[in-house]
Please model this.
Amino acid sequence: MSASDAAVTGIGMVTPAGLGREATWDGLCEGVGFGARDPWLAGLPVDFSCAVHDFDGGALLGKRITWRNDRFIHLAMVAAREAVADAALDTDTWDGPRVAVVLGCASNGGDRWPTEYRNLAEGRVEAISPTALLRSLPNMVAGEVSTDLQALGPCLTTSTACAAGTTAIGTARDLLRTGACDIAIAGGTDCARVPMGSAAFYRMRALSENRQDPAGASRPFDADRDGFVLSEAAAVLVLERPEYARARGAHIRGYVSGYGASSDGFHPTRPDPEGAGARRAVLAALADARADVSEVHHVNAHGTSTPLNDRVEAAMLSKVFRTPPPVTSVKGAIGHSLGAAGAIDAACTVMSLERQLVLPTANLDRLDDGMDLDVVTKTPRPHRMEAAISDSFGFGGQNAVLFFRAA
Model:
């Protein structure tokens, strides 16, 4: 651990695997998929998703907050509250101007836009909600979390597509490193399982069309994968300057020791077939952590379940590590939550280091030919680990990688 590391002192998650950090971990340990038919998507060519069930934002946050915000904000606020409670921080007594909020978001939901567009098309301008714009602006998730927690320092939203949650955590680590704050609330959120999202991704041929088996449709690195499954989720980490965390007697779960980012500069949706941009991001994270590839004992992979992305990522990992350490992708279980995905991967990586346990990749029955990876399947694998990485790659050629050390 060095002075430039960020201590992870709190974790909060809301995912299709469970409401809360421990429920999510237990669900992921089952090694099964959580995809199912989605009434919200009824009638569409792809009518299934990975949804967060039994989530009542009104009961958890109050009707006033949920009335003025879309679901992606509700998810983030609940995850942030859990993370802060896990860190044993008191928002009534902390020094608010020294607390930053950095949250990633890719699609921001859009729960109400179909209704508002219909009102506009029918000439019913007075029927458009005064909250229509506020509830869907991507930056409002950081703003609402800041207001809810009275975190009054830098307040940022990152939008690097499916790498947004990872970018947010890396950015928050950098704010701590520069002394801009003592504490950072960092992570990602998205509600991608909306009708327009499903229709648009279907037209791009990005989604799995396995309507016969929604629970088994997300199949990272599997020979029979045919696309990703839309999801919704939020994950938030509390990061602190190590000396600040130690001074208040905080329980430190792990450390963010390295962050790397790059751009493919290749294509709006397809990754560089050589994986050069992704490789640069991994090596940048290692260099930032002053670590060698031999120190990485686990990779929490992006693993979206799309044919091209998984193949490129697998080849890249083989080039970087030669003999890659145990790999997992939690998207097999909970699908792809876009801007939240990297934050979920980060949270799971920290918990894996804590518990010395690699989560299984759901629905992987037969590793695709030519993939030289040790992918953990079916059940969690005990594994001695001192450091691990999580990687994220998004549309626009956005690459972001985090390097974690065990506490």
Q: What stands out?
A: Residues 18 and 24 are 4 Å apart (CA to CA). The chain has a mean pLDDT of 95. DSSP finds 13 helices and 15 strands in the chain.
